[in-house]
Structure formats: C-alpha cells, structure tokens
Amino acid sequence: MKEKEFISVIKNILNSKYIGDDCAYLKDLCIVVSQDSLVEDVHFKKNLIAPFQLGYKSVMVNISDIAASGGKPLYLTVSLSLPENIDADFIKEFYSGCKKACGDNIEIIGGDITGSDKIYISVCAIGKTHERNISSRSGALTGQKVIVSGVHGSSAAGLRLLPNGCEKLVKAHLEPKAQVEFAANISKNVEGKYAMMDTSDGLMDALSTIANESGVLLDIDFKKIPYDKEIEQFDDWKDLILYGGEDYQIVATVPQDYPKGIEIGTVKEGLGVKLNGKIYTKEEVEKRIYNHFGVKS
Amino acid sequence: MKEKEFISVIKNILNSKYIGDDCAYLKDLCIVVSQDSLVEDVHFKKNLIAPFQLGYKSVMVNISDIAASGGKPLYLTVSLSLPENIDADFIKEFYSGCKKACGDNIEIIGGDITGSDKIYISVCAIGKTHERNISSRSGALTGQKVIVSGVHGSSAAGLRLLPNGCEKLVKAHLEPKAQVEFAANISKNVEGKYAMMDTSDGLMDALSTIANESGVLLDIDFKKIPYDKEIEQFDDWKDLILYGGEDYQIVATVPQDYPKGIEIGTVKEGLGVKLNGKIYTKEEVEKRIYNHFGVKS
C-alpha cells in the first residue's frame, strides 16, 4: 500500500480541506467525525485476538481519534463484514467488547453486517464540539511545552508477547484505553492555538507530524518519556517507546502554565523533532518507522 | 449470513433504540447518520463494474439512505481497503466516481485507506435535519396514500444484462440516482407522521417493512407501479419490479393532498402488503426475496 501517494491523489481529486486528518471538524454541525478500519491479516490475526477484544479495540481506536481532536465522543456506527463460518457467539462477544469500550457515555447507533471472505471492521465516530477548543496538528506554537498522557512502548511490547507473556503489556496491546478525560481537559481549558494527536501510530510519528504540520521544532528529552520498566526485556526497548504504535496516549503542545500531563519537551523555532541533540526530519522518522515496524497501512 | 438473527443479537447486547434502521436520527446533534458497506464478490464483481462506477455507487447508496430519512445529505467519510495490486489509476477513477455522485452540495471529508485481500468499501454519511420532518418506517397512518418517486425493476434488469446490453437499464444498475429532491420535498412539507424508505432492497421489501413496522396494510395496485417497458424482455419482469433491488427510488406514505409522486396504493387497517387482492405477510415477502434473488447480506 502506497497510502501517502494515494492520499495525495485523493486530495487532488476531492479538493477538500478535510482530507488527511484523523478527524474532520464540521463547524456548521458542531461535530467532529472520524472513520477507521481494521482488516483481518492486515491489522490483526484472528487466532491472536478474541472477538471481545477485537470489538473493544475497533471502537477504542475511533474514540481515541475523537478525543484527540478535542471533541466529546458520543456516537458510533459499526460496519462488520464476516465470513460464513462466523456464528452468533462471535457477534455476541464482539459487540460486548464494543459496548465495554463505549462505557456509559458513548452509544453505538447503527452500521451494517455483510458477508465477506475475511473479517473487516469499519467504525465511524462522531463527537460534539460544544464548549471545546478543537485541536489541530498545525497548532503548535513556539514556547509551548510538549506533554504526554502516559507510558509509551507497552502496546508494541505486548504485541511481541502475544498470545501469552507479561499480562500488563499484552493487555496494553489488546485493550488500550483512549485518554478521553485527559484530552477533554485540554480542549476545555486551553485557549488559543495548540496541537494534539493520539499516538496510535507511535510517539515519534505523532511528534513528527505535529512538528512538520506546525512548522516548528519539538525539542524532546528522551529521559522524560514515561514507560513501563517491563519493556526493558527487549533489546530495542527505546525504539518500542519511540516507534511502537497503538498506545493511544495523547501528545499535545500546550502553554507552559497548563497544569496536567507529563512534560517531555519544548516547542522551538526550527523544523522536525530534536531528540538527544539530533534533529530528525520527516523523512528520517518515516524511514525509521518503516525499518522497525514495516509499512503502516 | 444470518443477518437478521445477528441484528437481533446485536440489538440485545447494545440495547439501543437506533439499531435496525437505515439511519440513526440524533436529535441532540440535529443530524442523521448512516453507514453502508460494499464488499467485492458479495455486492459486486470487479470485472463487471468500473472503478468510477464503484465509487459512484458506494456514495450514492449512502446519500439515498440519508435522503430517505428526510435529512439533507451533506458529508461523507469513505473507508477503502484495497489489494496490493491496485494502482493510483484505480484510486483516481474511484474517487472521481465518488465526487460525481456527491454533486455540488455534498462533500467527502475523510475516511481511511488500508490494505486487504479484496476490495472493501464502507461509507458513512451525515445529513442535517434542520427544518425537516424526519421520517420513520413506523410512521404510516391509515388513510394516507402510498407514493413512489419513479420506475422499479430497471436496476435488477440492468444487472442481468451486464456487462453489455440495453444501455439505459445497465446504467440504471451501475449509476443509480438517489432521489434527494423528491425526499426533501416530502420532509419539508409533510406535517405529522409519515413513513419513507428508499427501495435499495426492492420495492416489496420496503413496502413490507413499512407495513409491518407501522402495523398497517398497504393496499397496492400493481398496474400503477411505473416501470420501463424494456424490462418486459424478461419473463419474470413483474418480479423484477417487485423484488429487484437497487433502484434507489423513494416509497412513502403521505397525506392524500400531498401533490407530488406517483400514487400506487393506500394505507389501510390490517397488516402486510395487499397486491392484486392477495395479502403478503412479512415471512412471505422474505421468502420470495430469497427465492428470486438469493439471500441479501
């Protein structure tokens, strides 16, 4: 998949300002909208994830996107395509997982079920923007600090340990938790421009995207990035922290006096991500993501 | 696929009033939302539909759902999963088709692209409900008349004639047109309860759904149902009109003095669809759809 090439073709044809972001902010309707898909044998292996966890994760991915936009996640539609041999038990488990991820404040309101050769899940999520300051990848301002909501690397470590292994890490991979409250607190309290993303594609990917779309340098102190000591069992644990995906934490650039989050760096003039003295360009980050974890699609 | 069994399992787990309809009406946000998917070898064969038409149809199906709810279709997200061997030309054609179906008033605002074995398309559509009287399948009232927006049977006839054959019928199948204006006129002008659906799964399916969900009898005069004479080339042309899907016309029950549409019958006390004197129950209609056109999934 040449996803980036395709997205630029699509942008050209549709000529829409919305294409390319995780969420579309529809100001006239006061909502944010996202859609994300999970495909069997591309995003997951059926024998390595239980139907409950698959439902849970499909929904959580989208809740995280809405939360990271600063919107309040409210409604989801779930489209499910299934092979003939799937039974009602699978459906029951899958939707129970969806429901658990929704919690008390988010509702699944529709979708469809169709046949297919493999399992295919596409979820659309809608959030409310009322009384929220919606974020942008291009909103980082020099002088702001860079904060994260929690540990990185656990999900990628958990993936390596599947189906068994350190329970905490495996759970971080199979049942990640969207940082809804953390993100809401930022969008309700920060005034003016700021940048926010979830780290679904890895911390460096998010940092690099914010840096390049905002035209700034993010000066990051690696030692300040929180992680779980358990991941040190892998020789490349530092890469898991930086390039491993699916932790679904929040990274944001906020004013210095914003009281929450774990500070990992500062927004400065320049371009790219500075880590331990070295500046990583967009191309270098993409190459490293490719080398460590294969092509994201 | 045991779609109906699965939907009842899902309804039980999610316990949501929205599940089961084509569209969810979110009153707090003043929007309607629908999601529909098209899967290669289930809903289409790659060699029988051009990428342009596939894009066109994926979008039109969802625009039709929103229109049939009475909402004003405004925004779409498109999720596309593609095998490795698909190139940028396919993407270009596909999205050009999407854009044509959108016309000037509807915009594609997001979605995603992922890898897969087969082509899988899932579209989510959002419409505005401001100054509209949103329809319901259960809104038919005795004394109302049953109207349709246009001819039925052409799309099913066109499908049989693929890849070549009567151009008009093939086009009706490959490039159906959602009846946005027809439906808008109803939702803007009819006061009080009424029922409206599109005929994506066939005219009888829509009539039977409205009849059973409203608890009424729809007394239909077959002779009044408009169709294209060209379909008489098939022995079972009457079945194409009644059970053939994908015409994407509108069927609605409206007050007798509503001035538009083609009247095909009347809403009466009772239950089911009465056609040429015989009453068809829900089960009979489902059995006939199955016998004529296989299981819909």
Summarize the structure in words:
Two copies of one chain form a homodimer. Chain A has 297 residues and is of the alpha+beta class. Chain A folds into two domains: 22-128, 60s Ribosomal Protein L30, Chain: A, CATH 3.30.1330; 145-291, Phosphoribosyl-aminoimidazole Synthetase, Chain A, domain 2 (Alpha-Beta Complex), CATH 3.90.650. Chain A is 35% helix and 24% strand. The first copy, chain A, has helices at 3-14, 51-69, 88-102, 154-161, 167-174, 180-189, 203-214, 237-243, 282-293, and strands at residues 24-26, 31-39, 72-82, 107-115, 120-128, 145-148, 195-198, 217-220, 250-254, 262-268, 272-275, 278-280. In chain A, strands 7-9-6-10-8-11-12 form a seven-stranded mixed β-sheet, sandwiched between helices. A five-stranded mixed β-sheet of chain A has the order 1-2-5-3-4, with helices on one face. In chain A, strand 3 (72-82), helix 3 and strand 4 form a beta-alpha-beta unit. In chain A, helix 2 runs parallel beside helix 3 (88-102). Chain A is globular. The termini of chain A are close together.
Summarize the helices and strands and which ones pair or pack.
Two copies of one chain form a homodimer.
Chain A: H1 3-14, E1 24-26, E2 31-39, H2 51-69, E3 72-82, H3 88-102, E4 107-115, E5 120-128, E6 145-148, H4 154-161, H5 167-174, H6 180-189, E7 195-198, H7 203-214, E8 217-220, H8 237-243, E9 250-254, E10 262-268, E11 272-275, E12 278-280, H9 282-293
Parallel strand pairs in A: 3-4, 8-11
Antiparallel strand pairs in A: 1-2, 2-5, 3-5, 6-9, 6-10, 7-9, 8-10, 11-12
